[in-house]
Amino acid sequence: MIAEIIINSNVKNLDRIFDYEIPTELNVKVGSRVFVPFGNMKTLEEGIVINIKDKTEYKVKSISALQEEQINDEYIELSKWMSNRYFCNLSDCLNLMLPPGRKTKNIQNRITDKKVNQISIAKDYEIIEQDIEAGIIKGKKQIDVLEFLMRNDNSSMQDIELFTDATSNTVNSLVSKGYLSKNEVKVERNPFIHKVEVRSVDLKLNDEQQNAIDRIKSSGEYLLYGITGSGKTEIYLQLIERMLKQNKSSIMLVPEISLTPQTVDRFISRFGSENIAVMHSKLSIGERYDAWNRIKNGEAKIIIGARSALFAPVTNLGVIIIDEEHDESYSSEMTPRYNAIEVAEKLTEMLEIPLVLGSATPDMKEFYRAKNGEIQLLTLTKRANESNLPNVEIVDMRESLASGNRSMISQKLKDEILKNLKKKKQTILFLNRRGFSTFVMCTDCGNTIKCKRCNITLTYHKKENKLKCHYCGYEQKVTAECPECKSRSMKYFGAGTQRLEDEVKKIFPNASTIRMDIDTVSKKNSHEYILNKFKNENIDILIGTQMVVKGHHFPKVTLVGVISADTNLNIGDFRASEKTFQTLTQVAGRAGREKDEGRVIIQTYNPENYAIEYSKTQDYNLFYDTEINIRKELKYPPFCDIIMIDMSAKNERELIEIAKRLHIYLKNRVINEKFGLLLYSPVPSPIDKIKDRYRMRIIIKCKYAERINELVNSMLNEFYNMKAKTGRVAIMLNPHNML
Questions:
Q1: Where does residue 154 fall: left (phi above 0), alpha (psi -120 to 50 degrees), or beta otherwise?
Q2: Element (H or E) spanning 278, and its range?
């Protein structure tokens, strides 16, 4: 028998099938992971069997070894579909289905281990990358260890040995060179070990909730559109309970890691931790490996996590639920650049099971499909506990500035915070910019301090007294002197969460505050620590970025303040108004979720903007009717598809040459073969340099179909034939991030 194998490689010319003979002693199936001799390589290569046939026309080698884990047939088919749709190697998609790590050792759960050696990165990632590129670090094993730890910092020695070919000698050598540090720590591999289980029971559904869950059948796609606090999670819980009674598994996706602790707590209280597996990037690689095995063995029937949980090796899957389906984190910005909603649609169609999408502010495309009857619309119009939606007031910051108030906080918001403090109620202040100041400028010559690797201004972080790039991680010390004109007139402009925190402490010195942004949640379990501290220790004011916006339920929060509602309006994206309305509606939904009245203060310099105006009443239907007409007029999704061809190179001239050649290729084919699409000329990307790579893009507007897919793939082949020295091309279909 002959196995058709895909070699696990991201090299484009290896993205094809290779035939290998199956030894009679190996039980090889479709989906088996194998080791095979390849070309003149001295070591064996990993491959995945995607088909088995009787014979081949070629003289072939034999499979050398079989690995324990394998991929289910349906995920092989799903990978093929993804590879075609998202313009990437089949192996890139198959990798999503594999367990964390590649080695074949059979590890045991080490929950009972008392102490392990924890290995951590000891130098800046940028320095390590530069030393690798410069050849200062030469050994392949050393490079593998460093790259592994840059993805999975604070790993145990056991995990490093398990998931790389390195030994303790490799690690010790890197420790002696100062690249790594080693500490003996107590570690437990059970992510639920610290949770206290308090069992709960099903809540009584109101008529709208009961009607929604009754309409969800054994297959089909459903959009659960319910206002904030309408009880969507209770529907998810009872739907999953229905699956458990049928001995079926469920996948529950959430967009933010910050949502996972609260979601997990609620699910554990209902179903117990023994039934649940959690998968997200903040878990150690060992914890992810253990979760993967529990799912594969059928021990965990409820899988909760971010978009990657969609590819867990689930047995007897009964339903996929995607909460906050509008969130852009469901679109991957790394190869393969897939959309989790689309992948879930394909998987549930293959398995003939239901897909439930939930949101208080649905994605325009999904709501348009529901309005047109392509998917079923389930609507919840009132809060589950009969509490009222919060009262929303919009404050025109132009008037506040004219009155002499130069504070980030308007007088109206100050007054409302004082009322809340007196009543011993909690407040959330939302600002979607982290750091202290968003840029530093010389007032003499106008020069701004920019990242050396990206064409973006550095953000001042007061606590570390450093300037940081939020795109590549570059950082430098604060300078008092302008590098251009040498004057000492450097001023700080803009405001982030650090400055807001400082201002709040000055205005309300007796109030307790806590901040939640990417700078405060870098450590493991820090999301959960901050949320629990705010909830359980009665912290007066929570200051945060988008992490505090979605899904959280805080009974004592009665006031929400939006410091700048205009942030998303200025991002240069056709979805700017949609993102603004979604964010404002979601953050407003955190207020008054129990019996106490909720209030929301939205500060803006654009009070007339329809996205801000409609968020006052949280009227999604009115916003949708306005926005959909604009989209139709301008030919934007859902009335077309957008393909973004993102090109980059270290040399600007090389990039321009690549862009010109690819555009000419596309233009000639579009004209000669009469493609019905809009092809735009190449332009610099909004951020035209990131990580020392210059960036340009070509935009195509079209109705995506197989013929368009063939055109773009042939353009990719044209690029590979160029053999560009440093050039790269990435294709994104309907990207959520246009920057």
A1: left
A2: strand 276-279
Q: What would the pLDDT profile of 392-437 be if each residue is shown by its tens digit?
A: 999 999 898 888 888 889 999 999 999 999 999 999 999 887 666 6
Q: Which of 348, 364, 365 is nearest to 81 (CA)?
A: 348
Encoded amino acid at 705, one letter: A
pLDDT score for 260: 63
Pairing of strands 599-604, 557-562: parallel
**pLDDT score at 522:** 61
Would you say 460 and 436 are in contact if contact means Cβ atoms under 8 Å apart? yes
- H or E element, residue 32: strand 32-36
Q: What is the pTM of this model?
A: 0.82
pLDDT score for 435: 63
Largest alpha-carbon pair distance within the chain? Answer: 85
Secondary structure (3-state) at 389:
coil
478 backbone dihedrals φ, ψ, rounded to 5°: -65, 135
Identify whether the C-beta of residue 310 lies closer than 8 Å to the C-beta of residue 714: no
What stretches in the chain show pLDDT beneath 70?
101-116, 185-200, 257-261, 434-437, 519-527, 550-551
CA–CA distance, 363 with 324 (Å, rounded to integer)? 9
- β-partners of residue 560 are 428, 600
In angstroms, the Cα distances linking 469 to 81, 150, 391, 459 are: 37, 18, 38, 6
Residues 6+ apart with CB under 8 A from 537: 512
Q: Are 6 and 17 in contact (CB under 8 A)?
A: yes
Per residue in 673-699, is it b (16+ CB within 10 Å) or e — as a string? eebebebeebebbeebbbbebbbbbbe
Cα 145 to Cα 150: distance, rounded to the nearest angstrom: 9
* Vertex 149 angle, CA 147 and 154, to 5°: 175
The closest alpha carbon to 411, from 423, 398, 422, 400, belongs to 400
Eight-class DSSP state of 677: S
Separation CA 103–CA 373 (nearest Å): 47
Count Cβ neighbours within 10 Å for each residue of 222-249 and write b for 16 or more, e otherwise: bbbbbbbbbbbbbbbbbbbeebeeeebb
Q: pLDDT of 322-342, one tens digit each?
A: 999 999 999 998 899 999 999
Do the strands 693-702 and 641-649 form a parallel or antiparallel pair, or are they unpaired? antiparallel
